[in-house]
Design a protein that fits this description.
The protein is an all-alpha fold and about 80 residues long. Helices cover about 75% and strands about 0% of the residues.
């Protein structure tokens, strides 16, 4: 329970600050991207007592597609610069 609190409180603070700067959609997709990337590392190396599952083209394609989606979501949230 203490470990959950020690990890949860910084996550909430970071999300509150991130949503203000980059928007809700980009912050949420960034969290999902991070979780997917970390789960692939855990699977690939067999960390935490799990069986090792090697990278595959399908898994790599999923990460690339999510990264592209994150890029487009983030770039669509940027304010447009007006030329003077």
């Amino acid at each position: 329970q203490l470990l959950g609190a020690l990890c949860g409180v910084p996550y909430i603070v970071i999300m509150v600050l991130a949503v203000q700067r980059i928007g809700t959609a980009a912050a949420t997709v960034a969290v999902i991207f991070g979780q997917l990337a970390m789960s692939m590392l855990i699977d690939n190396f067999g960390w935490l007592g799990n069986a090792a599952i090697a990278f595959s083209p399908g898994r790599l394609a999923a990460v690339v597609c999510l990264a592209i989606a994150l890029f487009f979501i983030y770039s669509s949230n940027k304010p447009k610069k007006t030329g003077a």
